[in-house]
């Protein structure tokens, strides 16, 4: 057997198995929280917001949940085309075949170590494929904008909301 035939066959076999697992996984009832892919974002948030999230576990959880709510809200304000592209990306990241194509591994993101997530995102960030760099930038911008849209996170930026003096007209 030639090396090229073996590699092609191995890749095709892996893809077929992954696709089979992805297509025949049991259907799970989705709630409104699942629509916005909260679990996936809760895995990515600490990676993108490294150093910005509070260290105290209870405060960290509050900040993550507040940011997840802001992400859900932000998604509703995106143009329809961008919403659709984002949903396609998130669905790929939640399926084993999509993960295999996008990250080279079928291990769910939830089960990966932070270092593995960082490596995957850095690979996307510096990839020659526009699709991966666009995916990285889109996720990063959505997460960062949603986090810093919450006034309680402005302190990290040393930003203070401007106040305006109201002059009484006599």
From TrEMBL:
It comes from the Bacteria. This is TAT leader-containing periplasmic protein.
């Amino acid at each position: 057997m030639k090396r090229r035939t073996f590699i092609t066959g191995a890749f095709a076999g892996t893809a077929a198995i992954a696709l089979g697992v992805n297509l025949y996984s049991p259907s799970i009832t989705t709630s409104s929280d699942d629509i916005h892919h909260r679990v996936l974002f809760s895995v990515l948030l600490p990676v993108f917001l490294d150093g910005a999230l509070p260290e105290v576990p209870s405060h960290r959880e509050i900040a993550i949940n507040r940011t997840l709510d802001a992400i859900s809200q932000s998604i509703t304000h995106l143009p329809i085309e961008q919403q659709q592209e984002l949903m396609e990306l998130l669905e790929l990241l939640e399926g084993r075949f999509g993960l295999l194509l996008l990250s080279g591994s079928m291990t769910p993101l939830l089960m990966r170590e932070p270092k593995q997530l960082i490596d995957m995102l850095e690979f996307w960030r510096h990839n020659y494929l526009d699709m991966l760099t666009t995916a990285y930038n889109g996720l990063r911008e959505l997460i960062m904008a949603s986090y810093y849209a919450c006034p309680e996170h402005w302190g990290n930026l040393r930003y203070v909301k401007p106040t305006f003096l109201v002059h009484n007209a006599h």
